[in-house]
Design brief:
Elements lengths: L2 H13 L17 E10 L4 H11 L2 E9 L2 H10 L8 E5 L5 H11 L3 E4 L6 H6 L1 H21 L4 E4 L4
Parallel strand pairs: 1-2, 1-4, 2-3, 4-5
Helix pairs in contact: 4-6
Length: 162
């Protein structure tokens, strides 16, 4: 990855407002140039992913692929972005733990930049369902990272909370 793309990603994350101590997001979005990038966001309809979506919409990009397993939030995202260029945005209902589906996504869409924001985040619920927590938060992340390497993705950005 060249330095310009790296700097754009770093500034996008820093300026996103996602990690402000007061919990408020910034309302002005910088317009970064990702004109040659097919950007994929997992967890695109979640709390972090949906905010990242809004920031990236203000940028120049080749294609934006928004992936989530939650039907209603993904549908709401589609509705929210209905006035955007539909040729440049694709919303996909997908289980990130299903290897065949994820492999097919990599082969057909050829992402060049991935923001992996899909994860379970409610600790007490995950303590009650540890298998689901490990399957999604650990094994799926490894699957995506491995496929990113296999398919020569330029940059895989893992977004996790402590």
């Amino acid at each position: 990855m060249n330095q310009t793309t790296y700097n754009n990603i770093k500034l996008l994350i820093e300026d996103s407002g996602l990690f402000h101590p007061n919990g408020k997001t910034k309302k002005t979005f910088q317009n970064f140039d990702f004109a040659n990038e097919t950007i994929l966001i997992t967890g695109a309809a979640g709390s972090i992913g949906s905010e990242l979506d809004k920031h990236l919409l203000a940028c120049n990009y080749k294609k934006l692929i928004l992936v989530d397993i939650a039907e209603s939030p993904l549908y709401n995202l589609i509705e929210e972005f209905e006035n955007e260029d539909s040729n440049k945005i694709e919303c996909l209902l997908l289980n990130i733990t299903e290897k065949d589906s994820v492999e097919y996504l990599f082969k057909t869409h050829k992402p060049t930049l991935i923001f992996h924001a899909a994860a379970y985040k409610h600790v007490p619920l995950m303590e009650a369902h540890p298998y689901e927590a490990v399957k999604t938060n650990i094994l799926a992340t490894k699957l995506w990272a491995d496929l990113a390497v296999k398919h020569a993705v330029k940059k895989f950005v893992f977004i996790g909370l402590k």
